[in-house]
Automatic annotation (TrEMBL):
This is AsnC family transcriptional regulator. SMART domains: HTH_ASNC. It holds the Pfam family HTH_24. Residues 1-64 form the HTH asnC-type domain. Keywords: Activator, DNA-binding, Transcription, Transcription regulation. Gene3D superfamilies: 3.30.70.920, Winged helix-like DNA-binding domain superfamily/Winged helix DNA-binding domain.
């Protein structure tokens, strides 16, 4: 990946709906080579898709909680079972396996604390292999980026 590829990625993160003509102008290429680079970045999996940024508050999902999850069992099959179950729960925005005193860290979005409390008991606690959870309620989202910085 060269500097032009990185420029393309930065521009697409800023505006995924940019026309190929405008993108090629911004990165200093003619249209055909620019299109070829974008297709290559897509085919290689660097670009995984395109989408719209949604306002969680307007969609009644403005409440954020981080949940530490400890599993009863951490065999490969138990981890796979938990991983697959988490992927089916839309309120779980992110799930990361952690090396430390607990096994997973979840980012959960719900309407409010009352909805989260119900969700904790009816969904998170019922996920396969869950032994213990600890919840941390977000008071203010200072930075919640949907993109990340691409090094030069």
């Amino acid at each position: 990946m060269d500097k032009i590829d990185k420029k393309i990625l930065k521009e697409l993160q800023t505006d995924g709906r940019i026309t190929m003509t405008e993108l090629s102008n911004r990165v200093g290429l003619s249209k055909t080579p620019c299109i070829e680079r974008v297709r290559r970045l897509e085919a290689s999996g660097v670009i995984q898709g395109y989408g719209a940024y949604l306002d969680p508050t307007r969609l009644e999902a403005g409440h954020i909680a981080f949940v530490q999850v400890t599993l009863k069992d951490t065999t490969t099959s138990a981890l796979q079972e938990f991983n697959q179950a988490v992927k089916r729960v839309p309120q779980i925005q992110a799930c990361h396996m952690i090396a430390g005193n607990f096994d997973y860290l979840l980012k959960v979005r719900t309407r409010d604390v009352a909805e989260y409390r119900q969700f904790l008991g009816t969904t998170i606690a019922q996920l396969p292999q869950v032994q213990h959870t600890s919840t941390f309620i977000v008071m203010e989202a200072v930075s919640d980026r949907l993109t990340f910085s691409i090094p030069d």
